[in-house]
Amino acid sequence: MDQIIVRGNGPLQGEIPIAGAKNACLTLMPATLLTDQPLTLTNAPRLSDIRTMTALLQSMGVEVTSLQDGQVLAMSSHALTSHRAEYDIVRKMRASILVLGPMLAREGRAEVSLPGGCAIGARPVDLHLSALQAMGAELDLRDGYVYAKAPSAGLKGAEFEFPLVSVGATENALMAATLARGTTVLKNAAREPEIVDLVQCLRRMGAQIEGEGTGTITIQGVDSLHGATHPVVTDRIELGTYMLAPAMCGGEIELLGGRIDLLAAFCEKLDEAGISINETPRGLKVARKNGRVRAVDVATAPYPGFPTDLQAQFMALMCLAEGSSVLEETIFENRFMHAPELTRMGAQIEVHGGQAKVTGVRQLRGAPVMATDLRASVSLILAGMAAEGQTTVSRVYHLDRGYEHVVRKLRGVGALIERVKEE
Ligand code: EPZ
C-alpha cells in the first residue's frame, strides 16, 4: 500500500483547480438506468469511487465510456443484462445502493446487496427502503440482498416524510419517483447541492420536479425520460478541504471553480477563525489574516449546516488555533478516528462521545500516522503540511476515493509532499 510523505514548509502560494463533486457524480451515474437513451456527464472527477460505480453499472449491462481522461462519462442503458448489484462490488462502496431506486422504477425489479457499515458508522439503508415501499415496492430482505419488485402497473406516487434527513435515501426516492404513476411529495428531504444537481440533471432528462434545495420536493411522474448531457457540480468538500491549506500553513491560494454559496456555513466559521475569503472571477482566494487562527466551536448538521465531510479537516485547523474549541459530530456515530492520529502529532484533543474538545497548540510535530477513512486521511495531510518535520501517512488508498491528484495539486502551491510505495 502507498504512503504519503509530507514535510512542513511554510506559506503556500498558487492555485488549485477544484474537480466535479464525487457525491454528485455517484448519484448522477445511476440516473442513466432511468432511460434507454444516452446520458453524458461532463466535469466528472477522476476517482476510484467513480471507477467502482462504473464497474457496477457495466456489470448490469450499462455501456459506460470514459472520455477526456475520465472527465466525460458517456453512458447508455439501452441493453441492460442484469438487475443485480453484486456484494463484491457493493461492499467496496456504499453508494452502490443508489442503483436500487432507478432500476426498480425503470425495470420493475432489482436485486441489490445491502451495503455493509463502514469505519464511520453502521450506516443503515432503512430510509431508502421505507420510501420505496411507500411507492408500492415489495421488498424481501434475505441472504444480504434486498429483492425489490414494483407492482405490475409500476411504482405509484406517494407522500413520504423522512424521519431524519438522509442524502442517499432522498436521492433513491427522488429518482424512483420520476417514473412513478402520479405525484410524489418527499418531506424532510435532504437539501445538499448534490441533490439540487441531481434534480437539474433529471429535469434535463424530462423529469417534472419542484422544490429541490428546500425540505419538500414534489415530483410528477412521467412515462419515460430521455437522454441528456449534464455538467457535474463543483465538489464543495474538495473545495473546503483545500481552503484549509492556507488557513493552516499561511500564504494565499486561489481555488479555481470555487463558489461560496456551496459552503456558506463553513465559510462563516473560517471567517470567525480569522481566515479571509474573497471571490474572484475564477473562484475563491483564501488567506490567513495576520496572527494565529482563532478557536471556534462547530456542530455538523445536514445542509445548509456545517458539513460532516469537513469536520475532520476543520479539526486539524483547530489543533493550531488560539484557545479551545468544541467540535460536535451529529451525523455519524464514529467520525473522530483522526483525533488519536492528530494527537500523535502533538495535538491536544479530548473525545467524549459525539464531542471533541480541541485545545490549540503553537506547533504540531510530524509523525507516522494512519488514515482510517476518506476525510480523516486528508486531515492528516493538512496537519503534516503545517507540522514541524516529516509526517508519513499510511493507507492512503482511502484518499484515492475522494481526491484526484492530491499530491500534484498540493505540490502546485508549494507543499513538500510525495507519494511512495510502502516498504
Ligand atoms: C452521503 O452519505 C455522502 N455520501 C456522505 O459522504 C456524507 O457524509 C453524508 O451523505 C452526509 O452528508 C455520498 O453522497 C455518496 P445519509 P449517505 O443517508 O447518503 C443515517 C464522504 O466522505 N441513515 O445522509 O449515506 C446514517 O446512518 C461521504 O464523501 C439511516 O439511519 O448519508 C447517518 O447517521 C461519507 N438510515 C445519517 O442518516 C438510512 O436509511 C445521514 O446519512 C440512511 C441514513
How would the blueprint of this fold be written?
Layout: E1 2-7, E2 12-17, H1 22-28, E3 39-42, H2 48-59, E4 63-67, E5 72-76, E6 84-85, H3 87-90, H4 100-107, E7 109-113, H5 126-134, E8 138-142, E9 145-149, E10 159-161, H6 167-177, E11 183-187, H7 193-204, E12 208-210, E13 216-220, E14 228-231, H8 236-249, E15 251-256, H9 264-272, E16 275-280, E17 283-288, E18 298-299, H10 311-318, E19 324-328, H11 338-344, E20 348-352, E21 355-359, E22 368-370, H12 374-386, E23 390-394, H13 397-402, H14 406-411, E24 416-421
Parallel strand pairs: 2-15, 3-14, 6-7, 10-11, 18-19, 22-23
Antiparallel strand pairs: 1-23, 1-24, 3-5, 4-5, 7-9, 8-9, 11-13, 12-13, 15-17, 16-17, 19-21, 20-21
The structure holds ligand EPZ.
Keywords: Cell cycle, Cell division, Cell shape, Cell wall biogenesis/degradation, Cytoplasm, Peptidoglycan synthesis, Pyruvate, Transferase
Active site: 118
Domain Enolpyruvate transferase: 7-410
Describe the 3D structure.
The chain folds into 2 domains: 205 residues, UDP-n-acetylglucosamine1-carboxyvinyl-transferase, Chain (Alpha-beta prism); 210 residues, Enolpyruvate transferase domain (UDP-n-acetylglucosamine1-carboxyvinyl-transferase, Chain). 30% of the residues lie in helices and 26% in strands. By secondary structure, it is α/β, with parallel strands linked by helices. The strands form 6 sheets. Strands 22-23-1-24 form a 4-stranded mixed β-sheet. The radius of gyration is 22 Å and the shape is elongated. The chain contains 14 helices and 24 strands. Ligand EPZ binds next to helix 1, helix 5, helix 6 and helix 12.
